[in-house]
Every structure is written in structure tokens, then in C-alpha cells.
Request: fold
Amino acid sequence: MKLNPEKIQAYCPEPVAVCLYDSIDSTNNEAKRRVDHGICLYATTHQTAGRGRRGHSFYSPKDTGLYMTLSLPLSESAANVQKITCAAAVAVCEAVSSLSGIDPQIKWVNDIYVNGKKAAGILTELVSDSDNRPRAVIIGIGMNLCTERFPEEFAASAGNLGDIEINALCGTVTAKLIDCYAHLDDNSILEKYKERSFCIGRTIRYTQNEIIHIATAIDIDDGGGLIVEENGTLTTLNSGEISIMIG
Ligand code: BTN
Reply:
């Protein structure tokens, strides 16, 4: 499992600067330290301090997964982090489908599921310049490829994508991300997101203001929010974590 810049670039339709690391704290941290002007990819097969959403860590053991961050110039219309995350989820699923026999699903908002287990996660962040103006969006993606052993807290819920050639995956995800980012305003992105939803039509649980809610996931709105229904009342979730109720 060796990353190779030329092999990755061969999948990209436009020039992408590629920075590879044997090991690094976090590719999102590196992208933030560097704040690029163009499109830049940071990738590794080992992170010592991988980060997930809401302050969680992302387990990134050596040589069993791909951990990558694509830094893209921010445009006015592209500041909706939630929608960018939705587009990134579609990009990852399509890349995986095109390279393997599996068809992943998406658990709102950023989790990629295979056979009911989380096999990949996405962390989108904005990076500002010294004047505090958002300058770039960084999309971090952690993909378990052949990771089989997980820390106890994730053991029941974590899975993997299987044995996909790492450079093909890295290059194809990058190319699909660039394409989805360029078409953020197309309805087709959210339609594709909904088609792959692991949540819509299911009973979910979430906590808001310390109150536990049990609701049915109904739809995704134009900004990537999750519309849920509880006792006849519709609510749109734009942050937080949901869990799917089984049975
Ligand atoms: C999540 O599951 O909450 C999101 C996980 C995102 C992990 C990726 S791995 C590459 C990039 N670097 C990080 O530190 N995080 C993201």
C-alpha cells in the first residue's frame, strides 16, 4: 500500500499539487498550516492525531487505510460546509462504486456505510487568512480499506471498504470531489445523496438542548439539512449527530 503522486495525478482532469506523507498528525491540520491558493491534495496511510467531527478522533492506523485532505479555493457560493460535505459523500461513494463491486450508503451527514458499518468519514472545514476571511475549504476523508481491528468503542460500528488499489482510490476520489464541488448548485448532487441515504425512512434518535428525540428521517433540504418528523411536526437538523434505531 504505497501512495504515488504520478499515479494519483493520472486520475485527475486538472493539475493538482500532491503532498504525500509516510505519517503525519492529521492531513486536515497540514492543509490548515499551509493554506493553499490552488487545488492541493494531502494524503497519507498513517495519522497520529486524525480528527473527526465534533471533536472526536479518527482512528488512522498504519497502512490499512487512506487518509486524505483536498484543499480547494473557496468561492462565495461555496461557503455552505454542510452542503460541501454532502457533495463529498457522493464523490466518495461514486469513486468506491466505480472501483469495486460495493455500493456504499450515506448516514447523514458525513458517514459512509458499507454493510451497516461505518467504513469512511468526512470532515469539512473552512480555512481563513490572517484577516479572518475564509480562503479555502478543506475536505478531509478517512477511509478504512483493510482495517479490521478497531478500538473497543468503535468495534461494533466500524467496517471497511475492502481491498481497493490505493492510488486509484485517492485519484478517483480527488477527481470526483473536484467535479462535485464545481457542481454544488446542481440539484443532481443532493438527489444522488438522497438515493444513497442510509437514514431516510428510518427511525432515528438525536439529542437537542439535552432532550432526546425519536423521529423519522423524511428528506434532505437544499442546504443538506436533515428533515425529520416527530409526532406530526417537521424539524430540520443542521448540526449534531443522529443514530439509527435498529428494529
Ligand atoms: C468523522 O468521521 O467524524 C470524520 C472523519 C474524517 C477523518 C479524515 S482522515 C483525513 C482527514 N484528517 C483528519 O484529521 N481528519 C480527516
User: Anything to note?
Assistant: The CA atoms of residues 68 and 80 lie 21 Å apart. The first strand starts at residue 17 and ends at 21. Helices lie at 5-9, 27-34, 81-99, 166-182, 187-195. Residues 26-28, 47, 50-53, 56, 58, 67-69, 110, 121-123, 140-142 surround biotin (CB under 6 Å).
